[in-house]
Amino acid sequence: MVTDGVFESYAVAGAIGAMFYVEPFSTEDIDIFVLTPEDRIVIELPGWEYLKSRGYTEIRKEGIVIEGWPVQFMPVNNALEREAYLNAQPLDFNGVNVRVTLPEHLVAIMLNVGRRKDLARIEMFLDQQEVDLNALDDVVRRHGLYEKWIQFKSSYDRQQQSEG
To answer: Among 138, 135, 130, 133, which residue's Cα sits nearest to residue 153?
Structure first.
């Protein structure tokens, strides 16, 4: 889709993005950040016409089903997501370079969303030492998530002490 000019670029995010860094876990879809013109209101799924013309016509939940996986092309809609998109790094997936959101941005986004499964995934990043804590501290401070981070980290540290 990038080669054909549908999107300028992309960044794999969400659970699939996290699995590039931590042990695999269950997920139902693939989240892809894309840029859309800032003055454009998105009223259809980004990439829908392109994929429909290639035979991908099934929608499951919020995603376009591509090779059995619902894929959500999510326009970046805040400064944190834009930064995550712009700073994604190429990582190898079966010999193909894939742009993946940095772990610090993934953790900050999960912290911002704050669902139980997101918080559990943050613990995985910390347990497996797959996040640069100094870089994460910088990201959460710049995006107004520092208080949430301090609360989460305090709870996480207490849990580690009680288990250790």
So the answer is: 133
Q: In what order do the strands lie in the sheet with 96-100?
A: 59-60, 63-66, 69-75, 30-34, 11-13, 96-100, 89-93
**Tokens encoding 13:** 């995010």
CA-based max dimension of the chain:
56
CA distance 125 to 23: 9
The amino acid occupying position 13 is A
pLDDT digits (tens, 9 = 90+) for 67-101: 999 999 888 989 999 999 999 999 999 999 999 99
Q: Are 106 and 7 in contact (CB under 8 A)?
A: no
Pairing between β-strand 59-60 and β-strand 89-93 as defined by DSSP bridges: unpaired
Provide the whole-model pTM.
0.90
d(CA 71, CA 61): 10
- Please compute, for residue 97, the number of CA atoms within 13 A of its CA located in the half-sphere on the CB side: 7
